[in-house]
Design a protein that fits this description.
Length: 453
């Protein structure tokens, strides 16, 4: 007969086995649920640039035919227009007749043809040697020395125009420092080290920060702001480059976070009346009056629901959103009363669509999204200061994405902050019809970027 000790060990073993069985049953149930979830995803369409926010660079491009196709809309050939302000002019008169060779130098002649010949003159540095002379004062017997002339003070040997070229070629065209040193040597005949290039960039921190502050003040004098963000690499960390813009002003901010704290730090206590952005939560809730979400992003999400099989709700929403965008493109030619009637019609159509009951999960998910941003869809229709999409932000960030691919990021935080300020100046200059190199020169000289005429 078994002893009490053996019975206790047996009961403990049975209890342990039962607990193990329960754990395995729970684990199996979790795995079954996970497999069912994965199988459900297998039936979903892939996310592409056409039905999601996947960037175009990650989309699968189809192979083009080998033979070139005829142009769909052929047009007559074009030629380069004549320069409106040629450096010099040369009038050439015929001396002899092309047919018989007779002397025609005394015959009245009219213009038959005009064309430009364009050439870049040889480029070489303009070096001014400054020699300060001095001596001994006959009155006080103290030594004296001439003061440097204005614009030729001691310090860096590189002038403002050269520094503007360095900043432009590095931060706008994305030329690496080693190659930039080669560019100056090969094209300009100027030997300049990578360390000197870095010093030129570092010296621009203060004037570009001041220019960005002036741009920000003008931006905040308006009533609307649009925003977006993209990733950037700083050191060994992932950062974010934000853009806040409207009309002729744009401000970029480099920050290690992608949260509402960035927007709050940028705005301070000020709040705009209107805001345009995608549906990311960090950019929502800042407008005092109304917020317009990007319909381009939403249309791509609607397309994904259609690709996933929703034929009840998504097709109607896509048509409605495209109709709204079409109204926005014609908005300048429409009266305010007409726009109000269009807005009311869009809302009635949307109310009718929201009554439909989608048959699949993709349609139901889309309906939840539409319900959440219901009040932010058609704000732009009657507000001429807003746009239907956030494409302005994406266009402003596109050069930054290209720069990121070229350089792979920044080694220092001050370099990232300086790049954000330079992009603020360059993008604002583009919107104000000012050349980027001219805006950089004005910034280094402490002057504001003029407004567009």
């Amino acid at each position: 007969m078994a002893s009490p000790t053996d019975l206790a060990d047996k009961d403990a073993l049975i209890a342990a086995l039962l607990a193990r069985i329960d754990a395995l049953v729970a684990q199996n149930a979790a795995l079954v649920a996970h497999v069912a979830e994965l199988e459900a995803k297998l039936g979903l369409p892939p996310k592409t640039p056409g039905n999601s926010s996947v960037p175009p660079s990650k989309g699968q491009k189809s192979s083009a035919p080998a033979a070139p196709r005829d142009k769909a809309k052929p047009h007559p050939g074009a030629h380069r227009p004549l320069d409106p302000n040629p450096t010099s002019k040369r009038d050439v008169f015929a001396r002899a007749c092309d047919g018989c060779g007779a002397d025609v130098s005394g015959v009245a002649q009219s213009l038959c043809e005009a064309y430009d010949r364009i050439e870049i003159p040889a480029i070489k540095p303009d070096v001014t040697r400054v020699s300060l002379h001095g001596g001994v004062c006959p009155c006080c017997a103290r030594r004296f020395r001439a003061a440097p002339p204005a614009g030729l003070e001691r310090g860096s040997p590189f002038g403002p125009n050269l520094r503007a070229f360095v900043i432009y070629l590095r931060s706008v065209q994305g030329i690496p420092l080693a190659r930039l040193s080669d560019v100056f040597r090969d094209l300009f005949g100027l030997a300049i080290s990578e360390g000197a290039l870095v010093n030129i960039l570092a010296a621009g921190r203060a004037p570009f920060a001041a220019q960005t502050s002036r741009i920000k003040a003008r931006l905040m004098a308006g009533a609307a702001i649009a925003s977006d963000e993209t990733g950037m690499r700083v050191g060994k960390a992932n950062w974010w480059l934000w853009v806040f813009h409207h009309a002729d002003s744009a401000v970029f901010v480099a920050d290690r976070h992608r949260s509402k704290a960035v927007v709050e730090a940028f705005l301070g206590r000020w709040r705009p009346d209107y805001w345009i952005s995608d549906r990311y939560g960090g950019q929502m809730g800042w407008a005092r009056r109304e917020h317009q979400v990007c319909l381009a992003h939403l249309i791509r999400d609607v397309q994904y629901a259609i690709d996933a099989g929703d034929a009840v709700f998504a097709p109607g929403v896509k048509g409605l959103l495209k109709r709204a965008c079409a109204i926005g493109r014609r908005r300048d030619d429409l009266a305010d009363a007409t726009l109000k009637a269009y807005e009311a019609d869009l809302n009635r159509r949307l109310d009718s669509l929201m009554k439909r009951v989608p048959a699949d999960s993709a349609g139901r998910k889309l309906q939840t999204i539409i319900r959440k941003v219901r009040a932010n869809l058609f704000v732009f229709v009657t507000n001429r200061d807003l746009s239907a999409t956030n494409n302005g932000s994406e266009r402003a960030l596109r050069p930054c994405a290209v720069y990121r691919k070229i350089t792979n990021g920044f080694r220092s935080q001050w370099g990232a902050a300086l790049y954000a300020d330079i992009r603020s100046v360059v993008e604002t200059a583009r919107r104000r019809s000012v050349r980027a190199i001219d805006a950089i020169r004005l910034t280094l000289e402490g002057q504001s970027i003029p407004s567009a005429a």
